[in-house]
Amino acid sequence: MRGLMQDAPLLISSLIDYAAQYHGEREIVSRTIEGPVQRTSYAAMQRRAKQLGNALLSMGIKLGDRVATLAWNGYRHMEIYYGVSCIGAVLHTINPRLFPEQIEYIANHAEDQFIFLDLTFVPLMEQMQDRLPKVRGFVVMTDEAHMPKTSLRNAVCYEKLVNAHSDRLAWPVFDESTASSLCYTSGTTGNPKGVLYSHRSTVLHGFAGCMGDVLGITSSDSILVVVPLFHANAWGIPYSAAMCGAKLVFPGMAMDGKSIFELLRDERVTMTAGVPTVWLMLFQYLDQVKAETGKIPELPHLKRVVIGGSAAPRAMIKRFWDDFGAYVVHAWGMTEMSPLGTTGNLLPKHKDLPIEERLDVQVKQGRAVYGVELRITDDEGKELPRDGKAFGNLQVRGPWITSGYFKGEGGKVLDADNWFTTGDVATLDPDGYMQITDRAKDVIKSGGEWISSIDLENEAVGHPAVAEAAVIGVAHPKWQERPLLLIVRKKGAEASKEEILEFLEPRIAKWWMPDDVVFVDELPHTATGKLLKTKLREQFRDYKLPGA
Amino acid sequence: MRGLMQDAPLLISSLIDYAAQYHGEREIVSRTIEGPVQRTSYAAMQRRAKQLGNALLSMGIKLGDRVATLAWNGYRHMEIYYGVSCIGAVLHTINPRLFPEQIEYIANHAEDQFIFLDLTFVPLMEQMQDRLPKVRGFVVMTDEAHMPKTSLRNAVCYEKLVNAHSDRLAWPVFDESTASSLCYTSGTTGNPKGVLYSHRSTVLHGFAGCMGDVLGITSSDSILVVVPLFHANAWGIPYSAAMCGAKLVFPGMAMDGKSIFELLRDERVTMTAGVPTVWLMLFQYLDQVKAETGKIPELPHLKRVVIGGSAAPRAMIKRFWDDFGAYVVHAWGMTEMSPLGTTGNLLPKHKDLPIEERLDVQVKQGRAVYGVELRITDDEGKELPRDGKAFGNLQVRGPWITSGYFKGEGGKVLDADNWFTTGDVATLDPDGYMQITDRAKDVIKSGGEWISSIDLENEAVGHPAVAEAAVIGVAHPKWQERPLLLIVRKKGAEASKEEILEFLEPRIAKWWMPDDVVFVDELPHTATGKLLKTKLREQFRDYKLPGA
């Protein structure tokens, strides 16, 4: 028997309509590529998203067509988020930090009809356009005064395009499982693969972002969106914020510490979100200010800092608290997960913990968001205990998690019970806090037991002479694999293999001890700055460990 | 093109499973009918809901079968919420305050298979059971020690039933639009009509309850659920609380001021929810304590009081703030709306308002919850402006709003665009705050303009001699209808028609002035305490107004 409730689809258009109707005056502030800070509102954004919707329809864009962006964080990018998805087309956010060959592959694979790009990327696209034969035209996200002379095919000025169309448009209504946006993962192996979100998954994920135990976004918030809008729908913030009328602040391309600090201060930011690298730059700037003025400047409104993308260091979590009384919400997710999976909020029993014990909780990646099922398994798929010690393959399931990649790339990605294997290795403690211990392909399998390469690296970089460390598994006749530690020494620093191993000894389990240490001049990295262990494993494939 | 996200249905079972997994130790505290306060947890509740699920399956309950409750607020009632819905049966919460004939009608109309009832209602059901031939048996919600001798057909003790079954049960998976629960509206005219909720509508509504701008429920909350669990799924709290692991406190049948106060204090309640009557009793108790001890006792943890069901008086909103620093979230909804429609939270611009101006905002019923579309129209269905002045028929639309009553009673309830007419008359101001001005059938239509009977009544009760007032429209040859004011004077108080009209004169528009005043000994009320204006209109149908 079906319930007798209205059959109202969950559509992204309802978000911007709600924001315009109930939070019409609420500000959206952007540092622009052209220079000045621009201020708009949800009411204006809805009007312009509708103008853009009409423009896209006039350009022949139909339900399901892909429209790409290559852009920094700003109000125009967010207008495109809504303008494209709300008419039933698919917003494809391209990560401009990828290698040009990857961008070319992605735009061709997605069959993007148009690319909307910031001024910054005009030269790149001019070079690449001949290799993007399916792209019908390029829209430069600027006004007529700043529109460059360009060889881009069918180049159009964004403001001219938008202003040429009416804001009268009734958003179309369609099935909520219709595709809304597309984002490619930048894997360390193989070609990038596209994750195709739906209106339903986006709205449900938006609800999650508004929960107090997730991101806790409310109408009182002013949110600096540091995480790029080309990353997994920028963690859902553009949707959750509209759902409750939060003020949004976009930093444009100025990610330096000073620019970020000024926005945090001037826009009375209560919550911000980004990857650890950005916060390192912020603290470098603050240290410099302190050296000049004798004190760290205040940010009295900042309450929450959401850190994800890679693990937030303990010192960073502590420093946000010490300097600003801001709580770091350590988060974990994946492009394949829309991306929210876990968030590190405290339970009532943690509220009065001394800071160091609280940090023990906060360094973990947090607890599953309602809507995401989480478990860890061994290589046979058997579920492992949630005891905070056992670590296994992290698997996830739920309505905003991928069921397969665009055009079937990568084949079947779910098991018989719909579990998606994340490729991360993690522990789950009895309270449900998850901690990533490794990537599944990097974990070292020694005599049937697993050794975390990340844990070993973290200990090794604690040695004063070590600048960077990598641990990989190398084949071993008896143990299957044993750890090999690769070290880049700090400039001018000295440390022998024996010294390093001696340093590690009291810090790790005896059977985790690397079988050898090799000193190298540098380690290989991916475009997004992660250690490229595939290359290391290849390089040291035939390495003979002592005693092997 | 469909998105490539997992096809995971939104099911109520995921709520209790999440709470058990991630907030297993979190408490659920109940004042029991048998006497003592009982403490359980989400983990235990999930186990017992599964035991109950197995019991129901063994009793032959199938997908879609209705299982009724006739019970106060307690942990067993909440276990039944989950046990019944999670196996795909339909939880039918019967309001025991209805007249016996209505209860009989409802149970027969719903075709309830079993009725779960508190000890309190054993005598009532013993009398009524012969008129409920389809009910196969009765489950008395108590333990074996308190199980009464009863003539009830196939009477079973709840604890005996639950304990006889295993807690091993994998909740079935089915379509999310499957019916989950049923609640009848107690209209003032005609038979009660059933609203049939779905798993989808319940989970979506649960998300809304967790939003900071709606009820703001989080894992830090301790919630005293004063609103009866037989009212429109108790405003969604049993679902939202499980979604984020909030502590729950149930008052049983002890709704007196002292009992409620003690729970608020002892269970460190941060949020509570109920109708205005209960809070009047609480304040009467507090006044008495103050008379005895010289001061109002403290409730340092109480932060939010959700008031709905009928309008919260300004003085009540102010008093919660003055006495406890607790913010009243004025809410409006309907059984037909799951029930959340609007909630009266502040916007950032209101935060620093002086208290009296803030109360001007808080006396309104609040702003639309994301997921609920709201508009006001005239009798021709034309949308009226959101200027805070125009008042019209309030219409709603959205995924947790009814599409029609159970078994088609009442016929088609949506217009061509899916709008549901609430029967309320309201204003909407430019910020989106809605204020109920009347019931549509009570509004007085005078010469093409509308006069709010409620506004007139509110002004009239301001007169020191007036105990209660009712305004109805009486036929008028020239104006179609004109207002007639009926007054119950306070014991021993005197006031003439002229004095009353003189009192009203500076307070209302001239053309709103009642054409006559009639003094009566008492006014008729419904079972739930609302003015029964149908009866008044009948009684005064042929009343001849002066000058008519």
Describe this protein's structure.
- 2 copies of one chain form a homodimer.
- Chain A is α/β, with parallel strands linked by helices and 548 residues long.
- Chain A has 3 domains: 13-24 and 38-202, ANL, N-terminal domain (Rossmann fold, 3-Layer(aba) Sandwich), CATH 3.40.50; 254-439, Rossmann fold (3-Layer(aba) Sandwich); 444-539, GMP Synthetase, Chain A, domain 3 (2-Layer Sandwich), CATH 3.30.300.
- Chain A contains 15 helices and 25 strands.
- The first copy, chain A, has helices at residues 13-22, 42-58, 75-86, 100-110, 122-128, 158-163, 199-209, 237-244, 257-266, 276-293, 314-324, 355-362, 453-460, 497-504, 533-539; strands at 27-31, 37-41, 66-70, 90-93, 114-117, 137-140, 156-157, 179-185, 193-198, 222-225, 247-250, 271-274, 304-307, 327-333, 340-343, 367-368, 373-377, 392-397, 420-428, 434-439, 444-446, 449-451, 466-476, 480-489, 516-519.
- In chain A, the strands form 5 sheets. Chain A has a 9-stranded mixed sheet with strand order 2-1-11-10-12-13-14-15-16, with helices on both faces. In chain A, strands 7-6-5-3-4-8-9 form a 7-stranded mixed sheet, sandwiched between helices.
- In chain A, helix 14 (497-504) links the parallel strand 24 (480-489) and strand 25.
- The interface between A and B is large, with 70 and 70 residues.
